[in-house]
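#onboarding

Welcome to the new folks! Below is a worked example of what a typical request in this channel looks like: someone posts a single protein sequence, and someone else replies with the predicted structure as tokens. Don't worry about understanding the tokens yet, we'll cover that in week two.

Example request:
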Amino acid sequence: MIYGLPLIIITIAIGFACASGLLIISLVPSKSEVSKRLEELEGTRWDSGLSRQAAFDRIFNDKQRGRLQQQLLEAGWYKVSPAQIGARVIAGGIFGLTLGICLCAYFKSLDLIFVAGLLLMTFIGMYIPFSQLKSAAVARKIAVTKALPDLLDMLSSTVQAGLAFNAALASSQETAMGALGEEIRAVLSEVRLGRSRSDALKSMAARVRVEQLSTTVTAIVQAERLGSNLANVLEELAEETRNRRMVRAEEIANLMPTKMVIPMALFMLPALFVMIFGGVVAQYLSQPH
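Example response:
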């Protein structure tokens, strides 16, 4: 007892407070590398947060940080650093541990089952940030894949109408919604800052890591280098991406009967058995023996 309060309550309060603080810190958007470089050149950068970031970076080694940074790019979380993911992992672990302690205190038990549940909740809390990151990356890739054929159709039409490729990109960024539109705007921003168009497109493909987009970028860069008709190349790419999407949809449709076996066995067959044999069983049980 501390000042009339049980130690378990104070421990739970401290745990929730620490986890909330770490979560708030991890949600503060970090600056881009361009902004940091400009601040360094102007001498106005304040490095008070470097030690804190270095402390969270120690959660991952260099290889893990590189892989995590790539996953952040694929998910479109450009303002989230690996250190912030580390802070979220610690906060999730503390939340899970504290919630487990709350359950143990509520049931007033600390046997082997509760200890295993405590460790499981801690692990789940630490895994939640990685699960959210993977889900965001998968959703972003699906969105890019869906929007790519329409973008290529728009680019092909505008290039055939006589616009330059940069102007075609600028006009199509308004029609390309979602993740692909954001990437097109990023490419145009890099080109305006002086980066070559081919390097900007390759950087976009490296960030997103979608096979169809990488193939499209490679074909566009090679067509420009060889002097091919870019409008025809874009039209062929649009048709190819649509065919791939149709093939993928057919593959998913062909897998549906296999995926429906378990739901049918769990839900439809028992209901069918009840409908067929329920009356017979009820009549048999109602007869005097």
